[in-house]
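The data layer described in this paper is built around a simple, fixed record for each protein. Such a record has a labelled line for the sequence and another for the backbone structure tokens. For reference, a complete record is included directly beneath this paragraph.
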Amino acid sequence: MVDEVRITVRIPRELAKGVEKVQAARGLTPSIILRNALTLYLATIDGSTETERRRQFSSEYLFLGIDLLIQRQFPDAHQALMAEADRRVEALYAAS
């Protein structure tokens, strides 16, 4: 027996219509559709989906590559760029 909990939720009519479309097209129950959607949503906000991990890796790789190029080709500008990046991050997080 699967350990499950019943949760009652209200959703906008447009979402319900979307669930009905998927149900008709794929032959899935509303429970399966909503369970899959919630699983994907929670994995996405956790950053643990394959797509999100790939995006994070690509971003980090690009940032590191650009940093290395700037360090080697424009060493005088590197510290100024780092200071400006730090200032912008601080301003962004102070605003939120």
